[in-house]
Design brief:
seven-stranded antiparallel β-sheet, mainly beta, 309 residues, 3 domains, globular, Jelly Rolls, Elongation Factor Tu (Ef-tu), domain 3
């Protein structure tokens, strides 16, 4: 059975595939295309095309099951969806399978009277602000800090042998394989794999300390985009740099956890570089390097966009 949920701007989640709140008779999960053509001799050639976002429509049923009556549930629901931004979650194969999301807003929510079964059933229409998407995240591993004193970690025991790949096996003197210590190999990159031909936005979070960070995007092993600053730039240990185009705006900010202050550094970017990345179909690999060669901890979040799911 497919499921739907909503998350509002306050971070609250509401399951709308329940006996109390039930979203049904749903339409608009597919897509339309908007096309333009030009004539060439006796034939028409496609000059441009894009996916038009259909409204998602259906009915919301509010019942007297539970502690509140249908009218109170309607009131709770209406207040919930007014806290923007609103995200519609869709599970086409059940809650244990893939989750797809879409940023929406409610264009219409009707209000009528209880039907003969004591149910309040209203037409609702969601206006989509994004395509459907899946969220993917990854973090690199600098290979440091596994142990506060030695940098070593114990492997995970499986069938009497300590193995936690990818680890480097280095037994200490007098130790056998089941008692050896293992050291994590550093992974200085992050990876997001996209199975969609639609480009999707990317958010990079680079943790200080870092001197003149340079971030690069590879697709299937080929460098396609690079970002950096137009002048000397450093992050302290308490600072993080965020490079984000998730909302459609281009945001570059530095947050200092010691002061709680966020400053805008967009004007300092190297305008000869793209700086803001977009996921492409294939294996998207991201790296961050520094002018002094120090390893930098960073996180990546990407949205893989789909025309329909």
């Amino acid at each position: 059975m497919r499921y739907f949920k909503l998350i509002n701007g306050a971070g609250e989640t509401l399951d709308i595939t329940t006996q109390e709140y039930f979203f049904h008779e749903i339409k608009g999960l597919g897509f339309d295309t908007e096309n333009s053509f030009r004539m060439s001799g006796d034939v028409w050639l496609l000059s441009s095309t894009y996916y038009a976002q259909q409204p998602v429509t259906g009915k919301m049923a509010f019942t007297d099951i539970g502690d509140t009556d249908p009218y109170e549930k309607y009131f709770i629901f209406s207040r919930f969806v007014m806290k923007l931004p609103l995200t519609l979650l869709y599970y086409p194969r059940g809650l244990s399978r893939q989750e797809y999301r879409r940023t929406v807003m409610v264009k219409k929510l009707d209000k009528s009277e209880l039907n003969i079964n004591g149910i309040l059933q209203e037409e609702i229409e969601f206006t989509p602000l994004t395509p459907w998407y899946r969220v993917f995240t990854d973090s690199n591993d600098t290979g440091e800090g596994e142990d506060e004193t030695t940098g070593w970690i114990w492997g995970k025991e499986e069938n009497g042998v300590y193995v936690t790949p990818p680890l480097v096996f280095e037994p200490e003197d007098g130790q056998n394989a089941t008692r050896a210590k293992f050291r994590a190999e550093p992974r200085l990159y992050t990876v997001i794999r996209s199975d969609s031909s639609n480009e999707g936005p990317v958010k990079l979070i680079i943790h200080g300390p870092a001197v003149n960070p340079l971030w690069t995007h590879y697709v299937d092993g080929t460098a396609v985009e690079t970002g950096g600053f137009d002048e000397d730039f450093s992050l302290s240990e308490s600072e993080t740099l965020t490079v984000d185009n998730m909302t459609g705006e281009y945001i570059m900010t530095v947050f200092d956890s010691s002061t709680g202050v966020t400053r805008n550094v967009y004007s300092l970017r190297d305008f000869d570089k793209l700086c803001f990345f977009s996921l492409q179909e294939g294996t998207n690999t991201f790296t961050v390097t520094t002018s002094n060669g120090a390893r930098v901890k960073f996180d990546v979040e990407g949205r893989v966009y789909y025309a329909t799911v």
